[in-house]
Amino acid sequence: MSTASDLLEIRPEGLYCPPGGFYIDPVKPVDKALITHGHADHARAGHGAVMATSQTLDIMAIRYGEDFTGSRQIANGAQVVNDVSVSFHPAGHVLGSAQIKITHKSTGTAVITGDYSRQPNPACAPFEPIPCDILVTEATFALPVFRHPDPLGEIARVLASIEAFPDRAHLIGAYALGKAQRVIMLLRMAGWDGPIFIHGALQRLCDYHISQGVPLGDLRPATIDRGKKSDFAGQIILGPPSAFAATWAQRFPDPVICFASGWMQVRARARQRGVELPLIISDHVDWPDLTQTITELNPAETWVTHGREDALLRWCELQGRKARPLRLLGYEEEQD
């Protein structure tokens, strides 16, 4: 007799659905891939065919070029792939991010969450809880110590620092897809209505968010004309974390280095990056939201991937819940 666990199996390429003949977020090129969101560790170029939300397909084209796949299919409502019903539902992680629900009449339903967050995010659609037999969940912050604070409270710390040090530029490290736009929106919600200067690596994705109705406000290139360094005193500049390791950050007046990431709760990581003002702003579920999700959805099985698997497996055991680790490789924890 078939069970829900027959819906999915682990292969070297990644998570595979045998009755559907497709992979989900594969780490190697495959004939057919369903993609949860546009971060590079989940969305890779070179697949024969890709199904994803329209926004994720657009983002992949921006990042990889229009020929990133042989063919593309927009996920729009429930669709049948071979004998499997497939639907995409908001994950609350980044623009276009989705959980993928797959159902087979003889095996049941599985939901692959990809990366997800239950905190309000003004830059993307909110997480949608989906009942299922198998829940495949990330475990990026799956330790009880990880409890993300109110992100607006973290932004308030930036604004307080600007008030205290008006002669210094405030540089915020934020990943180009998702985190940068969320930080910008949080700044707007907190009352910062002035210009926000952005590194060139953020421009195309910020422009795309604006085209999708995300009101990022007045964005300007973070370029310095000769003799105009002082113009950035008291200003906010966003750039990818990689730019902060170069001389780019030192072009600005006595910069206060900030970094927006859930990992900023770990002080050693902030010190390693030379971060003066760590901002604990995460686009992943923390421990309370992760355990709440499992409790709320009450799946027959929980499959745990990429992160702190052992702690969550132990929690499931203590709760009398069936769980297993997937040990998938190729997903990076730093995309937060």
TrEMBL record:
One of its GO terms (molecular function) is RNA endonuclease activity. SUPFAM superfamilies: Metallo-hydrolase/oxidoreductase. This is Putative mRNA 3-end processing factor. It comes from Yoonia ponticola.
